[in-house]
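batch_manifest entry 22 of 60
target: Major Facilitator Superfamily protein
source organism: Kibdelosporangium aridum
requested by: lab member K.T.
priority: normal
notes from requester: please return tokens only, no post-processing; we will run our own comparison against the previous entry in this batch. if the run fails, retry once and flag.
--- input ---
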Amino acid sequence: MGALALAGLGRAGHRVDPLEVTIVGALAERLTEPGRGLALTDSEVGLAASMYVAGAVLGSLLFGYLTDRLGRKKLFLATLGLYLAATTATAFSFDVWFFVLMRFLTGAGVGGEYAAINSAIDELVPARLRATVSLAVNGSYWGGAAVGAALTRLLLDPAMFSADVGWRVAFGLGAVLGLVILLVHRHLPGQHRIR
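--- output ---
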């Protein structure tokens, strides 16, 4: 796998985070509407957002530590698996505590992804390309945020989806993106340096 392929993998993985953050921010109003979402309070939406961030921080620390001990490829797959399971489960949330727990676990998967991809960049990308690849990977956040904002305009349109379904589809799309990334992850090099 070349440095550009690694950059593409990292950009795809990093677009999951802003997509998640933007979608939840845009869906907050829908989630608080009685009969249309989970009927969360504004405080509960804030708690879910805080738990996502807490999960991302703890996931980054835990999976970053484990990446050095178990290897990048295993941890890429583990963090992506956690993300896929948690974001899919979020789409099927039935009460506030389940929703908050799934947001925490989603954040942990995304935080672990950040740690694993940056470890891979440091180890696998030659010094002459490292800054470019790192900038491409870490600078892609805003592209994902734009995609998330565009998607929520469609998903919250009552002409396309009923009010109690659109927000669930939004989380399902995160899982679909994660599955695409999973296919790319299968080709991640194990212990070989990129030339």
